[in-house]
Every structure is written in structure tokens, then in C-alpha cells.
Specification:
The chain is 37% helix and 20% strand. The chain is of the alpha/beta class. Helix 1 packs parallel to helix 5, helix 8 runs parallel beside helix 9 and helix 9 runs parallel beside helix 11. Bound molecules: S-adenosyl-L-homocysteine, iron/sulfur cluster and FE3-S4 cluster.
Length: 471
């Protein structure tokens, strides 16, 4: 069983944090300038959640945080490997830092995250990018203090990576970027091995946190004023396996829901093969769980779904959606779709179009299949050309816009609860918020309402945004 980070390891981090802090403090006393650090996060909320922890440690080490790459003295790229595009962006950005490092010899550059769980990427970085000082993996990011200390004291280049997760990162400091929305990890890793996906290789096997630390984290967030909390896991439906208390995900939701306060709970992601009526019933009966469901279908052809190793059929998927909508008529439903999986024919792609026409998702995240080294689909026959994939992607997105707009139009004239999270465009007098379904919404409102819920009458619905007025 994988346990939380043990006390000895935590003590080591605290020691290294203190050591860095003392170096930076004496530097500050001499120069009056604090070193600035920034983290650039790619990929999914799992990476965002890890970045929150690394930011927490950096703050304790005595760095001030910045969002400007040009002025930073320490830059971390927390990387994603899910598609080639994400990886290329990181390489481009590391390349661009060569000049900055030449100008500022104190600049420390670290690469963390999913790309660094792939040996060929680690080798590439070590060979071609001498400007990189250290590398940490998804299972070792909490050893950031040691890596920074070593870089500061001229300890040479370091790569600390473990193939398998050895400890659940509990007990680390956290610094979040928002005061309203927060991520709470329910489980790490993935066991599903969808044939296109690199995540099981970069995040290791599934490990669930015990319910108590999760509940404690949510309680803390609610009392600090967080209003929109997302429970994370690559497949939350297998939450609870191997934990001592043995709660499953619907039961965990019920426990979370008991926490008093004004807040929404969301979760992602839910794999259709393991989603149950009990999950939807728990949502429907709760007072805090948003009626929002992200249920990635990936494609509309049963043959392709089998090749993807998804373990459900289009018919079973539609049945699930019907159940969820019957229990929650106000449900906001979104999905992920990959076009151009190896061997996908024009007719099979049209089955995907037929599916989105029938289901009418509120929104879709659409992707062109990207070959990922080490995955089963990498070597599959029938790889499509980039042009073909692009053209299918465009057709899919264009068609979805019709349904997104249609679903949003149904909300015109309705009064919805909106959580305001930020000012809108400058001098617009608008605030930006989210509906319970996670839809972007703007309304004229005083800045004092940021961080609060308000009733908003929707006046105008567009494809990607709603406009309204306080009701
Ligand atoms: N665990 C989540 C998804 C994580 S990855 C789930 O199972 O739903 C997010 C999305 O990226 C996936 O749902 C899939 O649509 C997309 N994706 C993953 N690997 C991909 C690849 N090789 N090419 C294109 N899209 C991919
Ligand atoms: Fe990837 Fe499938 Fe796991 Fe999601 S469930 S992370 S798509 S392997
Ligand atoms: Fe990317 Fe890793 Fe998330 S590969 S999508 S950052 S789990």
C-alpha cells in the first residue's frame, strides 16, 4: 500500500526549505532585492494542483512569486505529455531561456511534470539543454527544496525521478493562484491504459487519498472563503480502492456534501465505464455538488471505442447520459472527443458527428489524435495524415458550436446562480463568473461581489459565454 510521505522525508524538505531561506535572507539583507520565482503550468488540473504545492514551498523558501518570465530568477516548467503540441511548446520555451540565462547567471531553471516521466524526454533535456539545472518527476516534485538548494550551492545538474509513485504527497505547504476556485486531489494516477493515452505511464498506478485528509482540505478551503472546489482524479469512479476507510466516490461526495457552508463541489474526470446511477443520485440529492458532468466519450464508433480500450459502447454511453439527465434535468454535460484515431474511417467519424447531434453536449473538448511513444496506438496501422485529422477536427468543432449555442439559448430569460470570480474587461463595469454548470457568465455588478454567489437573469446567450443582469 502506498502511504503518505513519511515524517522523515517531510523533515528533510523542511530542512532544505530552511537552508534555502537562510541563503536568500542573507542575500536580501545585503541587496534589498528578493529573488523572484515563477511556475508555468501546462496540461490538466492535476498539474495545477502540484504547482500549487511547489508554489507553497517556493514561498516558504523565501522567493517572491511573479508571473513574468523575463524578471524571474527561478523558472519551473510543470509539463504535460498528453499531446505532442504541449511538448513542443515546452521545448520552444526552454530554448528561449538560453539568452535569459546568459544575461542572468543566477537564473535557475527546473523542469517538472509529466514529460519528465518519459526517459526519452529526460535524455533529450539533459543532452540538448544545458540551461536546465534540475528535473523532477510527478512522484518527486515535493523534493523541490533539495533541488533548489543544490542549484543555489552549485551542486551540478540533477534529475530526481521515480518510475512508480512511492508516497502520497500529504502535509506540503500550498499556495493557490485563485481565492475563489481550488483543486483538491482525490486520487493520483490511472490504471486504465486507454490505448492512445500516456497518462498511465507519466502518473503511475492509481492511488487514492484517505477520505479524512480530503475532507479536512475541503473544510479548510470553505472556511477560507473558497466557493468552487473541484475534486480531481483521472477516473474518480475508481476512488477508494486500497484505502483504509473504503468509501467509494459517491460516498465520498456525500461526506463532502455534509460540510456546512456556501460552496460548489465539482469533480473530474469520470470514466463512463465506471459511472453509476449511485453517482448521479448522490449528485441529485446533494446541496453542494454542482449539476455538472464531464463524461468523456472519446468517439461515436463502437469499433474505435474497442480499439481505444474504453470498455463501453455508444449505446451504454447514451443510456448513462439519459439516466443522469433524468435525475438532474438542469445538468450541464461536457465531453472529450479525439478525432483521427488510427484506422478511423470517414463513416466512423460521421458516427461521432451523429452522436454529438443526438446527445447535444453543452460543450466539448476536441483533440486530434497525437501519437504518444510507449502507448499501444503509437504503432497501430492506419495512422491518418495531419491534414485529415485537422479537417475532421474542424468539422467537429463547427458542428458542436451549433449545439453549444442552442443549449445556451435555452438559458435566456432564466435566473441562474452565478459565482463571481474576477473583474471583466477593464472599465466594462462587468464581473466575470461561472454558473453551476461551469459556464462563463458576465454581468454588471460591483467588485465587492467577487467571491460571492448572486442570482443573475440571463439576457443574451452566445456560443461560449452568457450575459446577464443581477436579478
Ligand atoms: N482521465 C481523463 C482524461 C485525461 S487526458 C479521462 O479519461 O477522461 C484528457 C483528454 O485528452 C482525454 O480525455 C482525451 O480526449 C485527450 N487525449 C488523451 N490522449 C490523447 C492523444 N494521444 N491524442 C489526442 N488526445 C488525447
Ligand atoms: Fe488516459 Fe484513459 Fe486514464 Fe483517462 S482513463 S487518463 S484517457 S488512460
Ligand atoms: Fe498532461 Fe500529465 Fe495532466 S500528461 S493532461 S499534465 S496528467
Amino acid at each position: 500500500m502506498i502511504k503518505p510521505i513519511d515524517e522523515a522525508m517531510l523533515a528533510e524538505q523542511r530542512r532544505d526549505i530552511a537552508a534555502v531561506r537562510s541563503i536568500l535572507e542573507s542575500e536580501y539583507a545585503a541587496s534589498g532585492r528578493r529573488r523572484l520565482a515563477m511556475i508555468e503550468t501546462y496540461g490538466c488540473q492535476q498539474n495545477e494542483a502540484d504547482s500549487d504545492r511547489m508554489r507553497g514551498m517556493l514561498a516558504q523558501m523565501g522567493f517572491s512569486l511573479t508571473e513574468k518570465r523575463q524578471e524571474a530568477d527561478l523558472i519551473l516548467f510543470n509539463t504535460c505529455a498528453v499531446r505532442e503540441h504541449a511538448e513542443l511548446k515546452v521545448f520552444g520555451n526552454i530554448g528561449a531561456l538560453k539568452h535569459q540565462k546568459a544575461k542572468n547567471p543566477n537564473l535557475i531553471l527546473g523542469i517538472t511534470g509529466c514529460m519528465m516521466q518519459q526517459q526519452h524526454r529526460v535524455d533529450e533535456i539533459l543532452m540538448k539543454y544545458p540551461q536546465v539545472d534540475f528535473i523532477l518527476g510527478t512522484g518527486t516534485f515535493f523534493r523541490l527544496p533539495g533541488a533548489v538548494l543544490s542549484a543555489l550551492s552549485g551542486g551540478g545538474r540533477q534529475a530526481v525521478i521515480e518510475q512508480e509513485t512511492s508516497a502520497i504527497p500529504e502535509g506540503l505547504p500550498v499556495q493557490r493562484t485563485s481565492d475563489v476556485r481550488a483543486w483538491v486531489t482525490a486520487m493520483y494516477g490511472c490504471n486504465n491504459f486507454c490505448s492512445y493515452c500516456v497518462v498511465p505511464y507519466t502518473r503511475g498506478r492509481e492511488v487514492s487519498r484517505e477520505p479524512e485528509p480530503i475532507l479536512e482540505e475541503v473544510r479548510g478551503l470553505v472556511s477560507q472563503g473558497y466557493r468552487d472546489i473541484t475534486l480531481l482524479g483521472q477516473n474518480v469512479n475508481s476512488y477508494g480502492r486500497g484505502t483504509q476507510r473504503g468509501l467509494d466516490f459517491p460516498q465520498l461526495l456525500q461526506e463532502v456534501d455534509k460540510i456546512p457552508g456556501e460552496y460548489w463541489i465539482r469533480y473530474m474526470t469520470s470514466h463512463p465505464k465506471d459511472a453509476t446511477s449511485r453517482l448521479f443520485e448522490a449528485m441529485a440529492a446533494s446541496s453542494h455538488i454542482a449539476h455538472q458532468l464531464h463524461l468523456p466519450v472519446q468517439c461515436g464508433s463502437n469499433r474505435v471505442l474497442r480499439e481505444m480500450n474504453r470498455h463501453y459502447t455508444v449505446e451504454q454511453y447514451k443510456e448513462l447520459v439519459a439516466k443522469a439527465r433524468a435525475l438532474m434535468p438542469d445538468l450541464t454535460l461536457s465531453s472529450d472527443i479525439i478525432v483521427g484515431f488510427p484506422g478511423e474511417t470517414e463513416a466512423e467519424f460521421e458516427e461521432t458527428l451523429a452522436l454529438i447531434r443526438e446527445v447535444e453536449f453543452d460543450s466539448l473538448f476536441t483533440f486530434a489524435f497525437s501519437r504518444r511513444k510507449g502507448t499501444k496506438a503509437y504503432d497501430m496501422k492506419g495512422q491518418l495524415s495531419t491534414e485529415e485529422k485537422k479537417s475532421r477536427l474542424e468539422r467537429l468543432m463547427n458542428e458542436q458550436q451549433i449545439y453549444s449555442l442552442h443549449r445556451n439559448k435555452l438559458l435566456e430569460g432564466r435566473v441562474l446562480r452565478v459565482l463571481f470570480e474576477a473583474p471583466g474587461r477593464e472599465n466594462s463595469g462587468l464581473l466575470q463568473g461561472r454558473t453551476e454548470g461551469g459556464k462563463l457568465c458576465y454581468a454588471p455588478a460591483p467588485p465587492s461581489l467577487i467571491g460571492s454567489f448572486a442570482e443573475v437573469r440571463i439576457q443574451e446567450a452566445k456560443t461560449f459565454v452568457l450575459y446577464g443582469e443581477l436579478a
